[in-house]
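# step 3/5: fold
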Amino acid sequence: MKNPQAYTYIVIGTDDKMRSLEITYDPAVQEGNQIWGPYTSRSTVERAVQGIKESSRILCSNPSFKNSLCLNHSLGLCIGMCAGGEAADQYNTIIDSVIALLNGTDASLLEQMEQQMTEAAEQYDFETAAKYRDYIGAISFLNHKEKVIEFAAENQNIAILEAMDEQTLKLLLLKGNRILMHTKLEYDQPDITHLQAVITSAIMDAFRGELNQAPAAISHHEIDEAQIIYSYLKSSSCSYIIVQEDWLAAESPSRLDTAVDELLRIFLNAAPTHSYNF
C-alpha cells in the first residue's frame, strides 16, 4: 500500500542449513542466491509460489528447520524436510526442479500440477481443480514475463517490416523498446534491389550510433513497453530481424545485406511472422 510501484522478485536463498524459496521486494544479491524478476504483480507471484510449494509438498511451516516435523507435515503439505534425513535430500531435488522451471528449461513441475488438476477434476473435486488451474496460469504468466524481461534487458537492434497495402510497407527500427526510426516505403515486385539498399542504409545509419552503449536499468514503464513490443513481434502482423552489432561494425555489411534480402523475400511472399538471427 505504501509502495505500489515496487517490483516483486523470487529468490532462492542459501543459508547454513537449507535453500529457501521466498518472495521479496528487495533482491539484495548475496553469494549463492538466485533471483528472478522483476515482476509487477505481487499477487500473481504469490499464487505461483504457493502453487509450487503446495504441489511439491514443500509448504513447510517450520522454516527454521529445527529437526522437528512441522504442523503442515501432518496435513500432507510438507514432505518432512524440516526434520532432516532423506526428506532433506528430496527437498533439494525439488528446489533444483523449481530452478529449472523458473529458468524455462524443465516443465516437469508444471506437468505434475496439470496431472493433479486432472485427477481432482476426475474425482469431481472441482474446487481443487480450479485452484490448480489458477496456479498453472500464474506460473505460465511468470514464465512469459521472464521472457519479456530478458527481451528488454538484451536491448537488441530490431528491424521490422509490416505491410500497409499492396504497394506500401512500414519500416520500424527499434533499440530495445525505443523507436529510432519509422518510415513508409514503396515497393515494386519482383525487383527488390533498390528497396534492400534503402533498408540496409537506414539500419546502418540508425544503429551505428547506438553501438557499445551499456543498457540502462529496466523501469516499470519500460517493462510494460517491452511487453507490447514482444507481443507485436510474436504476432502475425510483421516480419523482423535482430541486427547483430558485429554486422554494423564490419567494413563490408555482407551479412546484413543477406539478412535484409532474406527478410524482404519472406515479407513479399506474405509468409507468417519470422525472425532471423544469422
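# step 4/5: annotate
The chain is about 45% helix and 15% strand.
# step 5/5: archive (pending)
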